[in-house]
User: Fold this.
Amino acid sequence: GAGVSQSPRYKVAKRGQDVALRCDPISGHVSLFWYQQALGQGPEFLTYFQNEAQLDKSGLPSDRFFAERPEGSVSTLKIQRTQQEDSAVYLCASSAGTGLSGELFFGEGSRLTVL
Amino acid sequence: GESVGLHLPTLSVQEGDNSIINCAYSNSASDYFIWYKQESGKGPQFIIDIRSNMDKRQGQRVTVLLNKTVKHLSLQIAATQPGDSAVYFCAETENDYKLSFGAGTTVTVRA
Assistant:
């Protein structure tokens, strides 16, 4: 498809399990963002990549969260030893230029439920 | 910390009427603002944006107003349609990449 693709769409994990969420941005998009959206809230910034470089990871809640984009295309958000407070929708977005110089396109999100 | 917020969590509007959604922000350094629409089960979708050197911008059926003096942003939707039912977020940034979103306003259009 032509949009941002995220997988899995839904993930149920037991507390303590590790999870990996994948984002396929729009082809050729330079910038990639991860946001966390708790139920009934607005998205919260997690991290920003420009090509393969992670320029800002200040929003990652703890050192259990790790994101990578090794070849400047697909990105993976990994959460180790999941906790109940990690339950949220994780949104990926991409833009053609640097930062918000172009329109930001969001994927449909990966809904994580930690039991 | 500073944050972006919305005055009202819900808005019910009659089909065909105009809608006004308000947003207050507290970061005086913010210089770029974006309105997003989010339908259930989907990611936010860009509606319209405005930079701090402007006070009004119009799109198709939508207008964004920015009042920097009182740090207030509004989104006006003309002739509201059933397809406009969604959650609307304002977002702001001071560094052109890190967006801060408000909590959102749920708009329900009555037929």
